[in-house]
Hints:
Bound molecules: 5-S-methyl-1-O-phosphono-5-thio-D-ribulose
Number of helices: 12
Mean pLDDT: 96
Strand content: 15-25%
Helix content: 40-55%
Order of helices and strands: EEEHHHHHEHHEHEHEEEHEEHEEEEEH
Number of domains: 2
CATH class of the largest domain: Alpha Beta
Amino acid sequence: MKNLNYRPIEWLGDRLKIIDQTKLPREEVYLELSRYQDIASAIKELKVRGAPAIGVAGAYGIALGARKIQVRSKDNFLEKLQTISQTIATTRPTARNLFYAVERMSRLINTKSNKSITEIKTALIEEAIKIHRDEIEATRKLSQFGAKLIKDGSTILTHCNAGPLATTGYGTALGIIIRAKEQGKKVKVITPETRPLLQGARLTTWELKRARIPFTLITDSMAGYFMSRGGINSVIVGADCITANGDTANKIGTYTLAVLAKENGIPFYVAAPTTTIDLSLASGKEISIEQRNPAEVTHIQGVSITHEGNEVANPAFDVTPANYIAAIITELGIVRSPYEERIGELCRGQE
Ligand code: MRU
């Protein structure tokens, strides 16, 4: 990508450097993490967030955890490694990319189980670096495919943040928009603030500014107003988990946008690497939806906005049924309905 003058995740050989996304846009703070426990906390607290970035950070977490294990017996080593993988896997329940990364690291551990502890440690670091590279490459390719769907002069509504921060690469939804701009197309973005944690207002605006793409920030409840006035050409969002039938979990509020898009005849696209697809889940009903701390709803940036003791719900994601989705844009190509068939073909073609 041209001119990306920040690195959301950087491997420094013996530690992981991440930009602390909770501090943006006011402060650009970088953290250097060398303990797997700190990486697990960074994921839970959304210092690193966005499904692909969570997967990459998780993989490095396992590699760093393995590196610090000081035992002689292989069995003890593998047992401790198992606990580390478990800790990483239980940080956030919805992001499929996290489980993809944990499973890929586990497969590697199995294939190397007859090697020495030192060799396994080295192999785990190499595998985490590969997972990182693969995610970057996947978002580069999918952005290229997706940019074909964007006409010159388009106004696109996106949701939450699905840019370089969320992926460590080009971005998914935002990657497509950035790529379209690089191709010389004039594009404008509408970005809802994305309550409760304001990823749209804090992070998407920050990234769009850096990419010099014009945007308008709105509150989440303004989306229908703008869609019904005819000024939005498409909606593009990222994904945390896509099931075998195309149902898609993404940031809370995405389903509302999909319904509004259909009602207003606006194509609704999902952009995600295939590492976000979970073929073992038949439909969105099987996706585990993260329920977060009610304080994220009762407070904005630490300031209370309601009475104490109210009943509060805070699901972090919702599921958009596949029939609302005009296309799913991946690094292997663009798939359209019937998703059940097409997603299977796409993923099997990779094996
Ligand atoms: O809770 P978050 O901020 O991790 O949620 C992120 C999203 O919902 C993104 O849209 C999704 O992970 C795709 S990122 C390319």
